[in-house]
Design goal:
It is a single chain. The chain is 49% helix and 16% strand. It is α/β, with parallel strands linked by helices. The chain folds into two domains: 225 residues, Spore Coat Polysaccharide Biosynthesis Protein SpsA, Chain A; 69 residues. It has an eight-stranded mixed sheet with strand order 7-5-6-4-1-2-3-8, with helices on both faces. Helix 1 links the parallel strand 1 and strand 2. Helix 9 runs antiparallel to helix 10. It is elongated. The structure holds uridine-5'-diphosphate and magnesium ion (MG).
Length: 318
Amino acid sequence: MSIETTHKSILTIVVPCYNEGEVLCETTRRLIAVLEGLQSVISPDSRILYVDDGSIDCTWDLIGRLHTADCRVVGISLAANSGHQNALMAGLETTVRCSDLFVTIDADLQDDETVICDMVRLAMEGCDIVYGVRSSRKSDTWFKRTTAQAFYRLMHRMGVRTVYNHADYRLMSRRTVEALLRYEERNLFLRGLVPLLGFRTATVEYVRLERKAGESKYPLTKMMGLAFDGITSFSMTPVHLVLWIGAAFLTAALVIAAWVVACLLTQRAVTGWASLMLSVWLCSGCILIGLGIVGEYIGKIYMEVKHRPRYVIKEEVL
Ligand code: UDP
Ligand code: MG
């Protein structure tokens, strides 16, 4: 989207927060500095929107106090912990009518906030989506780095278009957010959805830093849940794989049947109880895995047809 000379774009920085009380003051200080650095090119109505995702610490009180101190800080509080992806959607949906540009960034300052200036500059040059891409993940643990990179590769193999080493740090123009909001799915995986939108895109690189305070709100189980959602919401490859494995087993069964007939005709007794039992277990295992994968997709359909709200807003300071 191009920025008109008469009207400066309103920028909203959407920050999902789940028990981020320890880091929020520093985050606000840094993000206000970014808004001030951009004041010649963006509207003075630009703001920081904190989405409190059902925190149980002092996060919401702190957001209230930060709002009182500086009206550029606004917030919404979700009635329950709805997850990072839903919190982002809540922030975008709440501000879509009153902003022109949207940046989503985590509260913990791991993503270098100074590149927001480059993102805005690229938006002014006509880009609708600017992805923040990690050029180095040295600050991540070996485990996090390896599993994350294996996940990006797996997604690629499964035919899901994602931007390598990009998480949810990105700038979007209003028309792309409007397009995104038309996707009504409940199993959200924004890293897969946003590249589906099209539009003119660009990337900016940054070095991922250490968390400023507090600890990760993405334990291994949540991370695996997100990865699984990413694959099963976008790719039919696992189901196709089950079909191919089934076909391979059927072929093997036909070969074995031919061998049994040949043994019968040549009057040779069929021995091999152990191998028989082994194949029973093997086949049953494969069938159960197959059923599980298909069940996962049916479960997703079940969740989608219910049309439950993604989140419920409890309070606002806007
Ligand atoms: N977050 C959230 N809801 C959740 C979990 C996380 O809003 O249920 C927010 C969290 O406050 C942070 C962002 O999502 O702003 C990313 O979480 P985190 O930094 O803990 O993840 P990591 O960087 O360790 O993958
Ligand atoms: Mg983080």
